[in-house]
């Protein structure tokens, strides 16, 4: 269960409110790189955790931290909206460049929330919980978390570079540091679990003898002329130490699929109830 | 630009059609762990690629491979639907256990596609392209790709274990092998780019001097009693070699936020146009 | 900021796991009547709160409580999935009625989470944060909260009646009681703000002299023959004491709208670039 | 069944078209506070109505009225788009402030509809019918309706304040009046059904003896230091007359949940197939 | 504006309620082939209609008809749910085949609506108004309408074939007939506007001299071996009489795109701030 | 299976980057009229194709072509973003009209992709695969394809008219030509299948004797006063040659639906567990 302290985890200060920056900040709240996503992701991973209890506990701690990050950013959005125009007339009276601020705002900040944040991204698209990855596999989840914190830190640095408000830069420099730690933290779990050789391929519980081993370490080339983009992934030992990389020209190993004709009572056109091969012959020649 | 061979990349065979397994397979087509997602993700990463051309090219190859995986799985769905019941009467006549197959089907396989696949997950939720991560940062993207292939291989092994159809097991053993390679492949890019020490924290282009360094390698403890889940992430050098892990009890560093009162013409209640502090005193004492 | 205790707010016990009830419980997690919704709704209302500070604080408390309800329900889902079948073969071996349990499960509980909860409803539709109502108007928000707790308690009682598992009934009897309180709590805010006469119409800050007063207390009858469904809303004083209810036969007061013809360079058909009145004459006669 | 009169319910007139206001108006069409939502909500409540027939009939009347409100607002959007620029060149030639109008438009008004409304909100997010609340419980539905009309009237007054177009203000003053009535109307149903004492808690058909009564009228305090936001909801009789409000410090009554370890064939990592307690001891001490 | 008659357009009778058929019927309410879609589509096309007034009027009539179809189907869902089980116990007591009906139900029919319809499809996915096509081009809209009525009639016949309930078959035979008419009706508009030669290509207002005419009537072959699927579309005059069909082997006419390197302050990795050509040489050779 | 050539199908050149036009172009990528939709639609139609093999093959060719169109447009978006401002300061320094470009941008082009395209529409709404129509009926699918290409060409001409960049106009003139062909191509399939008389009504496999023939060719008039919008669809032979058009005044043929009262254990209010007829009598009189 959870508790709250009405104080923020870190100070949130806006020196010069900027309603368009309020729109930008929404990406860090409700965007796919944002904080609602990691909050729910870490909590759901914790609540569904099977296996060693320490990971459930760690995830619970960091998930709880993230709730406070949503809180900080929501406060930052509200503070950036202080003094924003409520009408076209007001906008005009402030500034000869009519409508440039109002036009660039998320109008829901005026119309729907009365100058508060929404759980939406910078385009006003609501957060969709399908982005909460909790696979039941601890390594898959850690990689999902690293991905979330990597795109999250990229986003936070872009917001930092976008603004020249000292208060906002201060808040973001804190969130950027936390993202640094969180990237490390999830990778540290994988290291603790044995790193590449022990943890990969994910899931490591599936016997590799049951996969088609001849295709498990080959880079498939699909360029029409067979040219190969060479790199670490086309030669040398694989990272898990269980195979050797090679480049393989991809070729069709299967046939042209041919489904049964449609049933007369299945809603197709009558012409579909029989199958006609390709005119002029040999589709297998394709 | 793209070309197609009407033959499949690998044979798709169903020995005993199972319409409920057709529903399960949909997760591998339109689920967040599925193939439409990686197809679009790798292609969009390729098309937006900035920097060394070799990564654009590599991504294009693998994105193109994935289109063929969607094709294979869509074929597998259609083959699992051959002979499925179209009506309650038909269901009854086949099997004394009335309705158990029809009830368990994705009814859109009957009603909307006439026994074909949809770009949806196993619950019939349509694929949503917000799951296409293409951040413009090559390492963040690689981690997103590893996450996708890790959850993807987890899914494929679960499907493999769910069925006892030899044809389906054969197809899945191929897809599982490809997921093995793709996990390796994206990690190999990170290794080629210098691994943890060179690539982290993501983005490595942001000067770490501008982040709040004192919080960049600390695990924040949010348990109400300050108990600490110890692990690789609470002590020792950080993985990027740039800091030292420590556990830190999280405390509120900011104040209670207080927004301006609502404007009279802003749609709030009149009572909100003035701010009243907490009754009985000291919210700051919280 | 937030803290967590790894213990649950209230005991969660499942005597006989039922994977289909796990599916049903998802509605209380990620459904529109569920707990993720109220958790985010109360927190966002708190974070965007303008006016008296006490409401911010109250909302924060209850929003924090709700995080723990999501936790309880996620635990209940996982416990109901203990021992669920992972394959068709396993299902068959347990029970002569082949597939009846597996068919009725949310297959993502097997395929995507490894027997854990998802932030989705009972049909597997992910929670969408557009359901977080935080209007910036305290009374509108309170009514939204009452609506959420009313549909939430209806849902909880339906789940209570659906199961005969004593553990689940015990957990639900707690959640039902909390919903009782929460319904009361939000209505108590409205009472504190003066009830119907002071708070209505929402927003009470808009001067009623600027609305078309003659239509503000009339029930509009749209039945084709003008029959009137009589009730408290067709006669007597209005609840806010500011008007008198009456039934009014609705009639078109406006004209037939006629838009300008399409521009030749606007992507319409050429025929749309001129406006032709209705043939045979007088559309205004309609 | 339904009939239409091509004339509008109330005149819609735009004196000075404003394409950015057209974007704002979309919130009243396809936003969660908008008219498509109430139209479908009242109609679905009517069509699924069980119990006294008079409520079915009343809901049908008002649902039918709302169709006409969508029509009025769609007309208002189209009229605000008359003369809007179709190209960057055109925009430039009109106004030295290049792009300020075009930039602020919903580009779908140009690209997708040829200057007409869409069933989307002011950010172009399509209406999603999950917002149609029809719970089968008449009081829950009435509160959902009051919430919809309260946020709806808040929205309408914000639009009214945003514009200085006399035609638009006239139309909105009509819609605002209708929202006044609709707030009253749904509350009048609850009054007719006995008000707080008879109708609450919703559903009133569930025997309160089966809820955990000791938690049914207590305000749970989740602040980390136990401070209590006092109000009408912390003391005195409950609004339904069935209990007494009190403040209760929330404490964990449950245990730390411990799920079974993952199955070896369930797609987890091997390390998850055994459960390890917290290192260093006593997680129950948390 | 709109009016309602509480009687249905056509009788709705269910002889033997079938809760799983209730689930299937939802596809005709909230599915992409369903009636909410056409209702909103025709109404929005009408409300945004520019050009001859007769089309606005016709669309308004048929859009109004469709509201009544949603009403009929919602009634059919509710009637199919009469007597459905509310609990696992009840299910068991009725039928030795435990859970087969309950498992196959849309659980929201129990949990969320109390045995009523939802604006969702057969998988419980809510209707999303992005499916409302109203392009501002009368011929594009008519084709969208034909597509809607074609998939709609296919769906209705599949539902007809799925059930053996005489009442449901009667209702569906009416809806199927209406779909027949509506297919005809929209095609009749295109005929009235001159058919293929006058109306195509859509939009006919764009001067064809500005399109790359050499590619306007060629079927592009993308098979890897250049095999050509011959048909009416590979030779002979085009249907609009303005060109001649031919098959053309598709070849890349453009170059390999090369974007500028990433900016140092743009959130990419440092390695992306320079562009390296393909190793080993000539990407143009690809 | 699929292959790629890294060169583009047609040259993509941007003479003067315009970040707001980049936003507009997104509609052609991820909008409902855009290329991801047709790409997936034609591929899924191909993969689920039953009946004559030639249509599977044709659809595969054109679906493959469309992947390359997404690629071209994604390249065009990235090129239009070259040099776009990353910050408010940068924006200011370039142009006295502060913020007009940045405000009008899709901020995700800065924040989420680092100047690359997303699979979203011009409002940033992600592509949703429910727009992939693949009904299993070849004629219904062809009409869906014609609708897609008609709205697609309308969109492309609007983009063409919006820009004055010669490079962009050249690219669009190619895409417009391809849309011309694709409109023709799908209609040619219908002609090959016998045109209106053989193909309609869709599906032609359903015996028309089972539809209510008396309503199959009547235009239903729903105007409140019975006025009739006359046209090709109100008299003369139907297009399929199987009926005669006529106008019919729509009247309610069904009764007022009356559902069973709510069950006491079903979550309704107690008052709903009995049904009360309309007060004052005769609802059938309505």
Automatic annotation (TrEMBL), chains A, B, C, D, E, F:
- Compositionally biased intervals (Low complexity): 273-286
Q: Where is this region: Disordered?
A: 256-286
Note the Pfam families from the entry: Mn_catalase
Name the InterPro entries for this protein.
Answer: Ferritin-like, Ferritin-like_SF, Mn_catalase, Mn_catalase_dom
Which family does the record claim for this protein?
Belongs to the manganese catalase family.
- This one is known as Manganese catalase family protein
């Amino acid at each position: 269960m959870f508790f709250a302290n009405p104080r923020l985890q870190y100070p949130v200060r806006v020196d010069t409110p900027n309603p368009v920056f309020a729109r930008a900040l929404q990406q860090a709240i409700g965007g796919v790189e944002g904080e609602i996503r990691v909050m729910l992701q870490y909590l759901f991973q914790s609540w569904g955790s099977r296996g060693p209890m320490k990971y459930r506990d760690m995830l619970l701690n960091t998930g709880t931290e993230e709730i406070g990050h949503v809180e900080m950013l929501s406060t930052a959005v509200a503070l950036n909206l202080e003094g924003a125009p409520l009408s076209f007339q007001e906008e005009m009276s402030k500034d000869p460049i009519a409508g440039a601020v109002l036009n660039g705002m998320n109008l829901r900040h005026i119309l729907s929330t009365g100058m508060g944040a929404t759980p939406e991204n910078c385009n006003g698209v609501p957060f969709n919980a399908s982005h909460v990855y909790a696979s039941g596999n601890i390594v898959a989840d850690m990689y999902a978390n690293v991905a979330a914190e990597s795109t999250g830190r990229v986003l936070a640095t872009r917001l930092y570079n976008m603004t020249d408000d000292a208060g906002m830069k201060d808040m973001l420099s804190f969130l950027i540091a936390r993202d640094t730690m969180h990237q490390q933290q999830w990778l540290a779990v994988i290291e603790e679990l044995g790193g590449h050789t022990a943890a990969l391929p994910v899931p490591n519980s599936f016997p590799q003898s049951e996969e088609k081993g001849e295709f498990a370490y080959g880079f498939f080339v699909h360029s029409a002329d067979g040219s190969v983009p060479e790199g670490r992934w086309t030669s040398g030992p694989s990272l898990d130490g269980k195979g050797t990389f090679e480049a393989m020209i991809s070729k069709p190993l299967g046939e042209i699929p041919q489904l049964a004709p449609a049933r007369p009572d299945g809603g197709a056109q009558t012409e579909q109830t029989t199958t006609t091969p390709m005119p002029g012959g040999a589709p297998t020649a394709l």
